[in-house]
Amino acid sequence: MRYFNYLSQAEEQELFYSLPVDYNNTSEQELLAYAVGAALYCPATRPTIATDVLSGKHLGLTSWVFDLEDAIGDQQVEAAEMSLTVQMHRLRMSLEQDPALYNRVPLMFIRVRSVEQLQRVLERMGPLMEMITGVMLPKFGAEQGERYFQTIAQYNQSKDSCAPVLYGLPILETAEVIYRESRLDALLAIKRVLDQYRSYVLNVRIGATDFSSLFGLRRNPDVTIYEITPIRDCISDIINLFGRMDAPYVISGPVWEYFASGERVLKPQIRQSPFEEALGPDGRRLRNEYINRHVDGLIREVMMDKENGIVGKTIIHPSHIRLVQSMYTVTREEYDDAIGIIERNNGELGVFKSGYSNKMNEIKPHLNWAKKVLARSKIYGVLHEQQHFISLLSEQERSVYV
């Protein structure tokens, strides 16, 4: 699997200075943590999972989450577990008959409801779990989280040594985490659990929908989650604890709930200049076409995610896949600055002027930033200097929509 592997060789050469690397669910933990990216949710009851995976139904999809929690009714739990097992068996049979199909398989995850369900799924799926990269752990708290990771650790210690590691992906979304009076104690307790099982933690996810529900809130499509003050404050504390560079976790951003269903009423807020800079005279037209089809609030929210060190996002509609992925690509300027900082980290210099003559790069303060940029560049690639994430989007939109 590789990001943007649907592009032709000519398109890759035109767009990328450094191509994304290949990976699969046996790759090293740090690489996989960044590779989760835009994770598409679907109900585990979906009867065409195996067919959809093998056919590449969703262009560019690299992470798929099969939901046994909120996406299915309480009366569907048993049927959903059985259906998912059947689908994974069908997928496994097809892959064994034609191993070349492995290149089409995204990272696959299961969101469970409880520790008991996780134990049941592990037993029911057996060797089929080798195709699953990790389990999403909703309503994550320290006490329940300890039991979740005990179960994950026991599975990993008892599996075949050649089988991929099964990871846990805790979702922070409970009242204890969002309420101010209990937040710090709750987050510190959660961090102690995750630190204990660090080798099995793929990333930390933020469940802003559940947070919002505790206040009776729901953001509209022209407002990012960072403009909802109770949620913003909680996200700030999560980043403060889990994003520190002495022991950082990859933090994934909250779901964007909206997708295009007609013309926008409000004027798009995304500046026109990036489109014109990347695409020239066609920029205005392509911007209008794109914004009419997609919610510009998502673009602004992913921009804010990145500025706050968040990489990855839960998505609920296929139209979000390529948009979110494209925004995680690394620009040539970011890459050159990062390389320059790391190469000069030998004590001889403290600061140097960027090769773009538009900033000063301070080696010690910017070193951790540079390391994160290089980690992201492996999965999402580095664009040529004249390219912009919008250039990548426009290629996709021409092929899919225009």
Structure description:
The protein is built from 17 helices and twelve strands. The protein has helices at residues 9-15, 29-35, 49-55, 77-97, 115-125, 142-158, 175-178, 180-196, 208-213, 229-242, 273-279, 283-293, 296-307, 321-327, 332-343, 363-380, 389-400; strands at 16-18, 38-43, 63-67, 107-111, 134-137, 167-172, 204-206, 251-256, 313-315, 351-353, 360-362, 382-383. It has an eight-stranded parallel beta barrel with strand order 2-3-4-5-6-7-8-9, surrounded by four helices. Helix 2 (29-35) packs across helix 16, helix 8 (180-196) packs parallel to helix 10 and helix 11 packs across helix 12 (283-293). It is globular and about 60 Å long. Mean pLDDT is 89; it is low at 262-268 and 395-402.
Write the layout of secondary structure elements.
Elements: H1 9-15, E1 16-18, H2 29-35, E2 38-43, H3 49-55, E3 63-67, H4 77-97, E4 107-111, H5 115-125, E5 134-137, H6 142-158, E6 167-172, H7 175-178, H8 180-196, E7 204-206, H9 208-213, H10 229-242, E8 251-256, H11 273-279, H12 283-293, H13 296-307, E9 313-315, H14 321-327, H15 332-343, E10 351-353, E11 360-362, H16 363-380, E12 382-383, H17 389-400
Parallel strand pairs: 2-3, 2-9, 3-4, 4-5, 5-6, 6-7, 7-8, 8-9
Antiparallel strand pairs: 1-12, 10-11
Write out the strand line-up for the largest beta sheet, numbering strands in chain order. Answer: 2-3-4-5-6-7-8-9
Content-based structural category: alpha/beta
Low-pLDDT windows of residues = 262-268, 395-402
Strand content: 5-15%
Query: Main sheet, how many strands, which sense, barrel?
Result: 8 strands, parallel, barrel
What is the H/E order? HEHEHEHEHEHEHHEHHEHHHEHHEEHEH
Task: Please tally the helical runs, counting DSSP H or I stretches of 4 or more residues.
Answer: 17
What is the overall pLDDT average? 89
Q: What would you call the shape?
A: globular
Helix content: 40-55%
Radius of gyration: 21 Å
Tally of strands: 12
What's the end-to-end separation, in Å?
A: 27 Å
